[in-house]
Batch of 2 targets.
Target 1
Amino acid sequence: MIVTDSEKTISALCSDWRAEGLSVGLVPTMGALHRGHLSLVKTAVASVDRVVVSIFVNPTQFAAGEDLDRYPRTLQQDCEQVKKAGACAVFTPDTVTVYPEGFSSEVRVSGITEGLCGAYRPGHFDGVSTVCAVLFGIVKPEVAVFGMKDAQQLAVIRRMVSDLRMGVDIVAAPIVREADGLAMSSRNRYLSVEERGQAVLINTGLEKAVSLCRGGEKNCAVLKEAFLQTVSNASKLRVQYAEIVDPDTLLQVETAEKTVLLAVAVFAGKTRLIDNVLIRPEV
Ligand code: PAF
């Protein structure tokens, strides 16, 4: 497996592969990889001939006061893991490589970036869509894999790729959870023992909404309340938002007549965790 921080090297490698008739997939990450990321790599390995994993902690998607400086960096371990998962190359550009002097462009997807996380992290998705556009431009993948835990990010990237005819097939990989249900996240390592213990209630709350809906409840206010009730007594948890939306448009829905997305952001202490579940009503 090749590890390079050079744009020239990775783009030459990918064009050599394409010239040989091999398909190329990209898994964009910020490193600090866990089993969730490895499942993205495995999904890519199953879909294309050659998989590139990018590891870049993208400064433009962090607002002032967020965790850019302390975001975990575990490059050597990350490389060992993705090699085992079947990646062929790891691209580890520095900030000047991604945003060279004079870089003046920004990709902004409007509408779906405004609600959910976008309402609390202004500019975040502009940073995400811009860096993904740059990475797609360098690697030119046929396929790129994103996790469903970042449901809004997935919707934003899909919109961008479709609007700008980027020709990248965006594949969604399911959320990977710890044994007790907590969604895997690089930020879980920030949690204290007490916060970690309570964070499991996030998934419990999501599952309660799912089972209520399975029992015939379609009123989204009631489903949302089931989630809120579950986490409400946990002293370390504070809900930033819990919304039930259409999974494609991310617009709020009132009745779960068809599949809806319950998306939440919850602070466990100072750590902001996101999670979601697709709720499919019984027909
Ligand atoms: O999901 C992430 O890790 C990041 O938002 C991404 C897609 C790698 C862009 O920096």
Target 2
Amino acid sequence: MSSNPVKSAEKSPYILVLGMGGTIAGLAREPKGNPLQYEAGQLGVELLLSHVESGLPAGIKIVSRQVANINSRNLSDALLTQLGIAVHDSLADLMVMGIVITHGTDTIEETGLFLQATCGKYAQTLGKRVILTGAMLPANAPKADGPSNLLDAIRWASTPIDNCPGGIYAVMDGRGCLAMDLAKRHATAINAPLRDSPSSSVGLINPSWLSGIKAVQAAWNEDLPIPKANEWPWVEILTSHAGARAQTIVHWFGSDVKGLVLAGTGMGGIHDEWKGALDQALGRGIALVRTSRTGAGTIYSDIPEKDTPGCMASGTLSAPRARIALQLALNAANQEKLNGKPLTWQDFFARIADLPEIR
Ligand code: ASP
């Protein structure tokens, strides 16, 4: 095992493991005490790999690289840029067979969508799998789930799985899905269900799941550009709730905020108190996306009421995913403007929001 930089001098193909931190690299303060009292991002990725060395698939060479070692609640735009570039450049490297990313589960949802939207087509075209994984228990907890997740991810990245295309996946708890479908949906439960769509066992790929993956990949025609570290448009998530006030929207006027993701009630309903202020926001050129605070289901245009022109429904995107999608769409539209092409942020956003659902 070696921790050479991505452009390593390796002469034979290998799996690249990129470390981002998270609970998988975390340490409980008292290993035999409460495993929920721990610090995330304490162990280096090379050490995590040394814990699983005996279980690695025979003949597979591993190279690791620490991109960050954080609690993923602190994930930043700049780190996403760094990770996106590392993944993109590594996919281009002929020696890299596949990529595994160890990541915190708090914001694995954002990273999954980001990598799908910026590197998904590239990975698919090259036939290489990028696998995100993490853990619910810190590395020194008696029943730590990180080692088995890491091994499963390395297997998924390295095994020629019949018919399973290259792309951006996530593996947790013995099951794999598209990374854009993985999210933390329980605050504390150990091995909580983390997926928003059907998944497949790591050992036995389910054919109907595979046809769902292929439908999503067929609909995803072109990756969006990775924003430069300091060029991510500022987008906030605001939640509609009982007692909502117009000031929550008006507050952003005069700031550099370029977009608002509105986590509405039910089917994406917005409190009447916000409506006038939202019209003003649109008039000021602030991009608006409507999603649901319920955490599941599809948000359709003009349901429950007609959308103000310019405001987009989020489709199946949760609020954190819609936020990343809107940032990428705004950035792509800015670049289009520079190239003299007329595509809008709505055109780019719709490409992500309209991807088929895997059932
Ligand atoms: N707070 C941790 C993180 O996201 C949680 C985890 O990894 O499960 O880094």
